[in-house]
Automatic annotation (TrEMBL):
UniProt name for this protein: Hydrogen peroxide-inducible genes activator
Top-level taxonomic group: Bacteria
Keyword annotations of the record: DNA-binding, Transcription, Transcription regulation
Annotated Gene3D superfamilies: Periplasmic binding protein-like II, Winged helix-like DNA-binding domain superfamily/Winged helix DNA-binding domain
InterPro entries for the chain: LysR_HTH_N, LysR_subst-bd, WH-like_DNA-bd_sf, WH_DNA-bd_sf
Pfam families for the chain: HTH_1, LysR_substrate
Keyword S-adenosyl-L-methionine (UniProt): no
The HTH lysR-type domain, residue ranges: 5-62
Keyword Transcription: yes
Sequence similarity: Belongs to the LysR transcriptional regulatory family.
């Protein structure tokens, strides 16, 4: 068991890989640069190979160095999960929990969810982070958030997924927009009459898939950055859009002369919580999801 890398050395290696700079990594680890450099050099001596190529002020990880980083990250995750596991059993739903939420969910439930969690989990230091699905998955993988609330389906195979609620889509248009009144099949909507969010927002793909809209001529080339811009286009009778029930229940259409036509069949997105399969806080996260499930379902109820 002698002459093995230490957890601290692996943490320093990960810091250098993340920041790609010895000075910045040292600052992030609250140590001097010389201390960090010595630790990395000692790690290389223990392993008997070069992990980082250094040249003046630049650095580059070797091929084996990149492999070691992958293994080191798993070792650190597993070590942290042991600590999380024991803390979870001693003090359920206590400490800090950072939840990432995508914008098309956070816009409508972030504030009440934050207040709800403060009341239901008084021993929990609850932190919300709003970001896109891809960014949250990256933050989750690297331990920057503990859980993420996403709209599904999405590529979450490497994480544990817990479905909380179905959030149904409805067709929304101005009450005087006659072109949409008699349409039964959404693919019969006029050319360029469907307004959607930018493709970076997963709600666009969910709406198209859920509402079986496959006629590209229907879709307007304009892509809105947020739902309020989207609704302004519809409010001026330029066309229609699809909104989830969560947004409608939150009052996004209040004061607008809009018609809401619920879709038929399976036109919905799933709202789900995801977390790392390697976490030691599975017990905590299951308790959390059970409590939050009723809250989210109420926000999605028709």
């Amino acid at each position: 068991m002698n002459n093995l890398p230490s957890i601290k050395q692996l943490q320093y290696l990960l810091a250098v890989h993340q920041h790609q700079h010895f000075g910045k990594a040292a600052t992030a680890c609250f140590i001097g640069q010389s201390t960090l450099s010595s630790a990395i050099q000692n790690l290389e001596e223990i392993l008997g190979c070069q992990l980082i190529e250094r040249e003046n002020r630049s650095l580059m990880f070797t091929d084996v160095g990149e492999e070691v980083v992958v293994r080191a990250r798993k070792i650190i995750d597993d070590t942290m999960s042991i600590k999380e596991l024991t803390r979870s059993y001693k003090h359920p739903l206590s400490g800090k929990l950072t939840l990432g939420v995508i914008p098309t969910i956070a816009s409508f439930i972030a504030a009440p969810l934050y207040q709800y969690c403060k009341e239901v989990f008084p021993d929990l230091k609850f932190i919300l982070v709003e970001d896109t699905s891809d960014n949250l998955l990256d933050k989750l993988e690297h331990g920057h958030v503990d859980m993420a609330m996403l709209a599904l389906p999405y590529h979450t195979e490497r994480f544990h997924t817990q479905i909380l609620a179905h959030d149904r889509f409805s067709l929304v248009h101005h009450k005087d927009y006659d072109a949409a009144k008699a349409v039964v099949d959404f693919n019969e909507l006029p050319e360029h009459s469907v307004f959607l969010l930018e493709r970076e927002h997963c709600m666009t793909g969910h709406a198209l898939s859920a509402c079986h809209l496959n006629r590209s001529e229907c879709i307007n080339p304009f892509e809105a950055a947020n739902l309020h811009t989207l609704l302004s286009m519809v409010e001026y009778q330029n066309g229609v859009t699809f909104l989830p029930q969560m947004a409608i229940n939150a009052g996004i259409l209040a004061g607008k002369n809009m018609v809401v036509r619920p879709s038929q069949g399976d036109a919905y997105r799933d709202i789900g919580l995801i977390w790392r399969k390697t976490t030691g806080r599975i017990r905590d996260f299951r308790l959390f999801s059970d409590k939050v499930c009723d809250f989210v379902q109420a926000r999605c109820a028709a």
